[in-house]
Write a structure and sequence with these properties.
alpha+beta; 8-stranded mixed beta sheet; 6-stranded antiparallel beta sheet
């Protein structure tokens, strides 16, 4: 991934080795891409993203057991996407979003028992772990600010999606978003944690007023150095063949309508093309904020959809 502010990741996932006896999850193919741009107004980019694949594999190197009694090769696969939009001014927001993603990765790697299948009880356990990890990220940011007083007050949104086979989970804080593009329709999977949305939830304003309300940028939820608890929105979803999973910061959704996002996802020939088009649309709309997108396109054979 380039180190400049206009950072792009276009990842081609190779077709699985047909000699590998695969777990259900590794039958799924996903084409992923991500793109981030500082926009036309901001001097620095406080957005960060990460796309990763996790694997649990086994290869038998030797045995005197009868042929077929032990798997020669086996694998399970999971995919994770994260976007984070830092707040706090100066370098604080940039540090907060970067540190949050680094902390999540460290916490996942340090987990000794990766759950690579998501029936309902196991999905609940993974969601519980996600919530705990978000609380740990808060602690990491607090400690970072204690060590460097110039970072006091920094914070970040954090939206995460993890797919295993045809199941996927989302964990969300702030006003970055996750969307599912299914059957030509775009469905928002997360709820903005903003003052405007809280007013709508309380019946003080209409839902259609939220997008233009002056308090739409005031966060009621973030992973920040202030406060003691992070309110994490957790969800369990299912994927179908051909679905697209989009994560983005508000630099996209403030500049581009959901109808235009859906049209871009429908028309693009690849995840990379879609990400490029979405960022271009945000810039054409004014580019008033950093804009970041991460996209996965899924191919799910019947055997993996059960």
């Amino acid at each position: 991934m380039p180190t400049d502010q206009d950072s792009t990741a276009e990842l081609s996932i190779p077709r699985p080795d047909e000699s590998l006896r695969r777990g259900t999850s590794s039958l799924v193919e996903i084409e992923v891409a991500g793109r981030s741009d500082p926009g036309k107004v901001r001097a620095n980019n406080e957005d960060h993203f990460l796309i990763a694949r996790f694997e649990r594999t086994m290869k038998t190197l030797g045995s005197n057991l009868p042929e077929g009694e032990v798997e020669e090769r086996y694998a399970e696969s999971a995919y994770g996407m994260l976007v984070a939009d830092g707040v706090g001014g100066s370098a604080g927001g940039e540090v907060a979003s970067r540190t949050a993603i680094q902390a999540i990765v460290d916490l996942v790697i340090d987990t000794p028992d990766w759950i690579m299948r998501l029936d309902e009880p196991l999905a609940d356990e993974v969601l519980k772990r996600m919530e705990q990890r978000f609380q740990k990220v808060h602690e990491v940011l607090v400690e970072r600010a204690k060590a460097d007083p110039t970072l006091r007050g920094m914070g970040t949104t954090l939206t995460l999606a993890c797919s295993v086979g045809a199941d996927f989970l989302t964990a969300h804080v702030g006003d970055s978003r996750a969307y599912l593009f299914h059957g030509g329709s775009l469905k928002r999977l997360t709820r903005d944690q903003t003052l405007a949305q809280s007013l709508a939830d309380a019946g003080e304003i209409r839902q259609e007023e939220v997008a233009e309300h002056p308090t739409r940028h005031i966060l009621t939820g973030a992973i920040a150095t202030r406060g003691t608890f992070v309110q994490v929105e957790l969800r369990h979803h299912r994927l179908a063949d051909g679905d697209q999973l989009l994560l983005c910061t508000d630099g996209l959704t403030e500049m581009v309508s959901e109808e235009a996002i859906a049209a871009a996802l429908s028309a693009a020939k690849s995840s990379a093309d879609a990400c490029r088009r979405l960022v271009d649309l945000a810039l054409e709309g004014g580019g008033k904020d950093n804009v970041t997108v991460a996209l996965g396109r899924y191919r799910i054979p019947h055997a993996a959809s059960r």
